[in-house]
Write a structure and sequence with these properties.
The protein has 300 residues and is an alpha+beta fold. Helix content is 39%, strand content 23%. A hairpin with a 4-residue loop joins strand 2 and strand 3. The longest helix has 20 residues.
């Protein structure tokens, strides 16, 4: 109830003009109501990583290209590791034919990496069966956030200390190290400013018939990934594939020629990609299930 929220939030700010959460909620309300100028005013006062990225989006929607470019230049200096700002900058550079100056990850498609690690688990079928049983014993919820016609576990899967989870974690971390080595010469901050300390956060995702994931990014992550445990046996073209794109959320489209990349995974595949890259999965008509462990490395 964004319209009804505004007078209450303004009252809160009369009591405490520096209450950042009220500024943030007020900015969200104004943005939802299409009042982007007012939203920018309060996003600036909230001054969070999220609000700074939202200012970029508002300036883009308002077609204030010069102000957008100036603000992006400022973020390059003041907030160069903002995942959501990186996603907006890559998208707007495509839409307005601008040079992408944001240093985190200028062309995220350059950093999509896939590898089949089935041979790391012997026998693979036994390992996956045990892992799926263990994951189904977790607390899982129906259609959380971006998941449709499917379940997702709650909490960090990698906090479990079972031998199966620890083995999976070890192999994923080895693949991440291989990833870093493969891209070590790239100048993007995504590689050159790789966090010295991070932890692995993962969840289990099970999609049923017609299941899919809506387009999203992982703003709290750095590197994201998926490990495919089980795929539906009978698939039509592109069903259950993962699709990467510069476009997501409610970013307005002015140029329909938006780069994308699609990958049809098989069991045992591991895919790694920047957390700033939008991705979604396509629905499938098979009665089989699609089981995945999705994860991020989170800077400490």
């Amino acid at each position: 109830k964004f319209k009804e929220a505004i007078p209450n939030l303004l009252l809160a700010l009369k009591i405490d003009p520096n209450y950042k959460e009220a500024h943030n909620c007020l900015a969200i309300s104004y943005k939802k109501l299409g009042k982007f100028e007012e939203a920018i005013t309060h996003y600036k006062k909230a001054n969070t990583s999220e609000s700074r990225a939202q200012i970029l989006q508002c300036l883009y929607v308002l077609k204030k290209t010069n102000e957008y470019s100036k603000y992006l230049s400022k973020l390059c200096q003041d907030d160069p590791k903002n995942i959501k700002a990186a996603s907006i900058s890559a998208f707007v550079s495509n839409q307005l034919n601008l040079k992408n100056i944001y240093p985190f990850c200028k062309n995220p498609f350059d950093f999509v990496f896939s590898k089949n690690i089935k041979s790391s688990f012997i026998p693979f079928e036994k390992f996956i069966k045990s892992l799926i049983i263990q994951c189904n014993n977790l607390t899982i919820v129906w259609e959380p956030r971006t998941t449709k016609f499917g379940y997702q576990s709650i909490g960090n899967l990698f906090r479990l200390q079972s031998p199966i989870i620890l083995n999976l974690k070890k192999i994923i971390l080895e693949a991440i190290n291989e990833y870093r080595i493969a891209y070590k010469t790239k100048p993007d901050g995504f590689i050159s400013q790789w966090p010295n300390k991070f932890y692995l956060f993962g969840c289990y995702n099970k999609l049923l018939k017609k299941g899919y994931q809506k387009s999203h990014i992982h703003p709290g992550g750095w590197l994201s990934g998926c490990f495919y445990l089980k795929m539906p046996k009978i698939l039509k073209k592109d069903e259950a594939a993962i699709n990467f794109s510069l476009h997501g959320y409610d970013y307005p489209i002015v140029n329909s020629d938006i780069p994308s990349y699609q990958y049809s995974p098989v069991e045992g595949d591991l895919i790694l990609f920047p957390s700033s890259l939008f991705h979604k999965t396509l629905p499938f008509s098979s009665n089989d299930e699609r089981h995945v462990v999705a994860f991020d490395i989170i800077p400490e």
